[in-house]
Specification:
single chain; 161 residues; mainly alpha
Amino acid sequence: MLIVTIVLCYSVIAPLIMPFGVAYFALGWLVAKNQVLRVYVPSYESNGRMWPHMHTRIIASLMIYQATMIGIISLKEFYYSAVLTPLLIISLIFAYTCHTRFYPAFAKTPLEVASQELKEMPNMGAIYTAFIPPCLKPEKLEDVEVFEDAQSRTTSRAPSF
């Protein structure tokens, strides 16, 4: 989001930055597409709970851009720069409307997601034995249970009489 804010704000001051911003996001899109298709295996789903945070930052970037644009245009003594002032007000109204209409939907988990079955608990014995080095693995499987019992007991350093 920082790159979006920088590209938007400086596009008014130096329009030459726009092709570099487009190239950055095009390359980022290609890399993200490759990762989704071939590399990345998602292990969780946020069910859209990140969108309100992203929307807030996008609106903030838009308002910073508009304020910068109004400031630069008014510094260049353009007579109709006052016409652009309602843009900030309209953006604030839009942000408030989105906040009141759509944000409550993100606060609650959707019924479709809540009705899905929970993932089953993994077999902890299999996980435990998977991480034992081969030189420390017991020959018999029954020894693993004895070893687990020995680990679960607490020992005190107090001398026994």
